[in-house]
Request: fold
Amino acid sequence: MPDQNTPAPTAPDASPLAPSSTVDDVVVAVDGTSGSGKSSTCRAVAQRLGLRYLDTGAQYRAMTWWMLEQGVDVHDADAVAARSGEPDLLSGTDPAAPTITVDGRDVSVEIRGEAVNGAVSPVATVPAVRARLVALQREIIGAGGIVVEGRDIGSAVWPEARVKVYLTADPAARAARRALESGTADVEATRASLLARDRIDSSRAVDPLTVPEGATHIDSTDLSLEEVVDLVAGLVTAPA
Reply:
């Protein structure tokens, strides 16, 4: 894992982007640890710059939700792989109102529940699941003009992205943020859950969580959301 004490970079130019063909086809790949602020940052950057937005984690969560609904043992990799091609997943890319549907049903709320939280990591480690979802992600990303968040975007899904960011934060800060989002009072349990997921995702055999080559590391521990958005947007708008 990267050094959490790495100082945050200075934004080249964080002013709102005027319409320009120079970013019409840009791909912004934002990877990082759980609870570091990827979703809020990516959605805000996409809205500011007039780009599409893709939450790849929601796709893995949607696949997990479907497996649970079908009674598949998520700890049986062969069983998960055997059925990974069945659900029809569709990701909406409007940063103001992103959606994720499974077989025509919007499951944006359901995929954030505790059942999915506890099962998504084993499902996400299954090679057949990753192969299917990476293919879907590449199809969406291919048109360009998009901010993509995940765990392996800059390293495996779209390594040619012009802008790559690796977003982290101190574990205590991440736990506090995630606990606030979920409405739980048990920050320590949330911290343990986040760190466990990071360990699983960092050690999986296929496309592990890692710092992509050429990525800018931003530690959001002591930064406001607006400051992080300024930094990422500045990387996009800076002269090539």
Observations:
- The chain is about 45% helix and 15% strand.
- The two ends are 28 Å apart (CA to CA).
